[in-house]
Amino acid sequence: MQLPPETLARLATVGWSDAITLPEDARAEHVPARVIIQHRNGYVVHDGAQEFTVQPAARFLRRSLDPVERPAVGDFVLLKPGKPATIEIVLPRHATLSRAAAGERYQRQLIATNVDSVLVLMGLDGDFNPRRLERYLALIQSSGAQCVVVLTKADQHEDLDALLEDVLDVLPPDIVVHAVNAKDPASVAVLHPYLGPGRTAVVVGSSGVGKSTLTNTLLGVERQATKAVREHDSRGRHTTTFRALIALPQGGCLIDTPGMRELKLTGEEDLEAGQFADIDALAMQCRFGDCAHQTEPGCAVRAALESGELDPERWASYQKLRDELQAQASSLEAQLKRKGEAKVANKALGKRLNEKYGQR
């Protein structure tokens, strides 16, 4: 199945690109669209000409289904026409930003799919937190998307150069940092290269950091609701209550998200491959391969801490993330094992029923 040129041109306004391919089971009756809003009782999609409400196919509603396999904001989907139309197929994703859902039960939660860039917003009015930034980086590095750090409210900070040095100390050299005034169109113009035709970016950050303000400025209209932060602690209140994909005048798409107060690792991150690569390099220099970096002789990590080469707060952050990552990885492994055992048990039960009652 190939889409006609006029359909491709229409879908390009919601981020369709030549890299997207249709599956073999796609049929001529299927209507391609992109999920722009996800509600508890349905989805809103856009086909490049209009947006409308649709329902997921019954298989997406099974309680046993991994939430990651359900449609999410950013997904390109194929619809079966009807009243309402039904999401029949979710097209392959090229990048997925996710986190572990809140609560004790392990479950992954999709934040956005098919994103080229993740804009991590942090306010310079008291919101900036290097440790939280490290956590964002860990999640983004396993997503397949480019990470861009955006420091908002730059007009409210007196010593911007000194703060930028602190930020760069936390970041790997390949991460780009922009300091902007989210209310000023000229200031946010530095973000336009991430929002060109065929590109999609997702905005993440705490409540009150300026995500909706930035979205409105990029749009050129007041579409997203905004609120002022509390003066005594610079904390914001949720103004965006659901994820929404918005087409921009720059030609690309932006996914605005609610403020995230909890950023749990999924268990699939690789800390040593990103912002903690220097700590991994130090550990490789330890005398013993199984060094716990406590009291062992010849420990390069302890030596770096004592000399001031390694920041104690950064080391503590690495240990905390490492321990959480190991715990989440164990939860993920246990979950996969339970699913495998259940599948084997169901298969064995089906075989016994067939033997007793015959194939139906």
Automatic annotation (TrEMBL):
Its cofactor is Zn(2+). Its main location: cytoplasm. Keywords: Coiled coil, Cytoplasm, GTP-binding, Hydrolase, Metal-binding, Nucleotide-binding, Ribosome biogenesis, RNA-binding, rRNA-binding, Zinc. Zn(2+) binds at residues 286, 291, 293, 299. Residues 113-261 form the EngC GTPase domain. SUPFAM superfamilies: P-loop containing nucleoside triphosphate hydrolases. CDD domains: YjeQ_EngC. It holds the Pfam family RsgA_GTPase. One of several proteins that assist in the late maturation steps of the functional core of the 30S ribosomal subunit. Helps release RbfA from mature subunits. May play a role in the assembly of ribosomal proteins into the subunit. Circularly permuted GTPase that catalyzes slow GTP hydrolysis, GTPase activity is stimulated by the 30S ribosomal subunit. Belongs to the TRAFAC class YlqF/YawG GTPase family. RsgA subfamily. This is Small ribosomal subunit biogenesis GTPase RsgA. The lineage of its organism: Bacteria, Pseudomonadati, Pseudomonadota, Gammaproteobacteria, Lysobacterales. The gene is rsgA.
